[in-house]
Amino acid sequence: MPFASLGLADTLVRALAAKGYNEPTPIQRDSIPQLLQGRDLLGIAQTGTGKTAAFVLPSIQNLVAANKRVLPTHCRMLVLAPTRELAGQIADNARAYAQFSKLSVATIFGGTSIAKNRNDVARGVDILVATPGRLIDVVEQGYLNLSMIEILVLDEADQMLDLGFIHALRKIVRMLPRKRQTLFFSATMPPSIRQLADQFLTDPVTVSVVPQSTTAERVDQSVIFCNQTEKQALLTIMLRDLPIDRALVFTRTKHGADRVVKLLAGNGQGAVAIHGNKSQPQRERALAAFKSGEVKVLVATDIAARGIDVSGVSHVFNFELPNVPEQYVHRIGRTARAGASGEAIAFCADDEKPYLKDIEKLTRQKVAVAPLPDDFLRQADKIKAERVKAIGADPAPREDRPRQQRGPARPKASHAPRATSGSPQDRNYANASRRGGGNGGGSGGGRRRGGGGGGRPQVQAGR
Length: 463
Fold this sequence. Notes:
Layout: H1 10-18, H2 26-36, E1 41-44, H3 51-66, E2 75-80, H4 84-97, E3 105-108, H5 114-122, E4 125-130, H6 132-140, E5 151-154, H7 157-162, H8 166-174, E6 181-186, H9 191-200, E7 205-208, E8 219-225, H10 231-241, E9 246-250, H11 254-266, E10 272-274, H12 280-292, E11 297-300, H13 302-305, E12 313-318, H14 325-332, E13 342-348, H15 353-363, E14 368-369, H16 376-391, H17 424-435, H18 455-461
Parallel strand pairs: 1-6, 1-7, 2-4, 2-5, 3-4, 5-6, 8-13, 8-14, 9-11, 9-12, 10-11, 12-13
Helix pairs in contact: 2-3, 3-4, 10-16, 14-15, 17-18
C-alpha cells in the first residue's frame, strides 16, 4: 500500500520519497486516515514503529488545508515530548516532511538559551516541539501564547507521567483552546495514561499496532545471571567478541553510566555517556559521535535515551535492569528499528531478579537464559588486571563509598515540616519551577547543577 492511497498530498509523498520511505508502517496505515478526518486519537505503539510520521504527516496536511496565518508569538501545532533528544528528533522529522509545504518548525527545551527560544517564536511558528518545563517558562515570561493551538500531540505519554509531568501537562492544557485535535501516543498503556486520555481526548479512535506492553518481535532477547562485580568484565568480553555495529548500554543512574565509561576506557574500549547531568552541547557531541560511528558504544540512563533514533544499533545491553518494567520495553526498542533485527542482552545480579520477574510479567514472555562465556573467570581476572594497570583501582560504586563525617551532626529542626501535596516528582517540579529550573528538558537554571538544564524531575528520574 503506497502512502498516496492513505489520502496524503503529493507534497508529503514527495517528502517521504526523499527520505526513502515508500510503504507505511502499521501505525501509519491505521492512524493517518483517521487523523486526516480531524479525529482525536489514542495510539499504542512501541518506539521504532514510525509513530512520529503517523502524527506529523496528517497534521501538516490539515494545517496546510486550514490555510491560517500564524500570529507573532503564537503557534498552530504543539508537540510535547519528555526529553530534549526526543523533541529534537521529532522536529528534525517534521522539517523533513514539511519541506515542500512551507510550514515553519521550532523547538523549545532546556539546555538552550531562553533568549533563543524567544527569538524562535517571536514571528510565530506553525509547528512547535517542546518539553513541558521550558515551555511553561517561556509562556509565563510572555514570549509565547498558546491560545491558537489547532493540534496538540503528547508523544511518549507514559514517560511524561513517569517523570512527574502530570501537573505541568494539566497546566499547559488549561492554556489551550477547547476546540482542538488532540493525539496521545504511548508505548505502554497503564491505567494512569488511560485516565489522562479520558480527560484530554474527545471521542478518540484507539489504534494499537501491537498487543499492549509486549516487546519488539524482531529483538532477540536473553539474560545472563552474574554477580554485580562481574558485569564489567562480562560487558567487555561481549563488546569484544560479538559482531557489534553500535551498542547501547543502559544503567539506572548517572554515576553508574560515567563509571561504566571509565572502566571501559581502562579496558581499551571507547565509549561515551549521555545523561541528565550532561550539558546540551555534551549530549549533542556524544550523540553525533555515536551516529557517525566514531564511537560504537553509548552508555545512557533511561531519561536520556528517549529520542535516541540511531540506525544500525545492533545490540542493547541492560547493564543494570530497570526498576520500572516499562522502561525495559523502551530500552530494547532502541534496536530493531526501521525493519531491522537486533539483540538485547540483560545482565541480572541476584538483587535484580525481582526486576526481571516484573519485566516478564509485563511483557508476558520469558526471557531466554544465556550462559556466561567460556572460561569466563580466567578472562575476567585478566581484564581486571589490565584495567588496574591502566587506570589504577576501580572506582567503587557510589553507594559503597563510606561517608565522611563533617563535624558534629546538626540537631533536628524543631519546627514542623511544610506540607506539600502531590508525588515526589511533582514536588520536585514545583520546587524547580520556583527556582526557574523547569523540568525534563527544563530551563537553563538546571545548568548550575551540572550543566544539564534538566531541572529537578530530570535529575530525579534520569538516574
